[in-house]
Amino acid sequence: MGSRECCGLNVIKNVLNFFNIIFLLAGFGVVGVAVWTMIDRYQYVTLLASLTYPIIVYFLLAAGGLVIFVAIMGCYAVLKNNRLLLVFYIFSLVLIFLIEAMVGVVAYIYEENVQTELEMSLNNTLLSTYKISDDKTEAVDFLQENFRCCGAVSFTDWQYSEWLQTDHETENVVPDSCCKTVSKGCGSSDHPSNINYSGCLDLMALHMENHLFILSVVGLGICVVQIFGIIFGCKLYFKLKNLDAVEGPTDRTTFL
Question: pTM (2 decimals)?
């Protein structure tokens, strides 16, 4: 191998290793964003009419895990000059690129529609499932306590709830989670000094739109970086293949 060829090969390997380090850090970042999204007020997603939001998060989490694995594999493939691993590395990057592009696009589209979905479903979900479905009840209380809101549009929504229509023993006019200071039975008074008057719909929509924007930026942003990994992975593969053709097969260039 001539010094010029060796120099060109080393440059490509160094550049690809640099991008693999970027991929590794990006993978941890993607996993971190997905986990943060799952933890940060994630309980209220049970109130959504569709599964689009949790599916986006799980796909992003899976893509982040794959990025970490592929980045480590890419470093090993470069170290060993292993063409088979490079092929697998390139195709894996293409797969991850497609997954993250899909996540980014779907998150962007869903961000535009989440307000409409909540307007169509949230009020009905709150009024028909509270104190009837345990997981929905917990989600409603979680939503109202953390967002300091009451009802979908207004605290007056609760007077039409199935809970108050059927539970004749309760003295509450709103759930206790509507109270500014939550305590058992505090929802018996709907005075403005006692409960939050603002509805949850707009606050929940704004919170979800902010999360979806972050997921969209993360998904599409990582895609751009991966394009460089695919390009330099291909360049290294063909560089090694050309050297094999010149020098003949060696242990260094076997597919194992």
Answer: 0.77
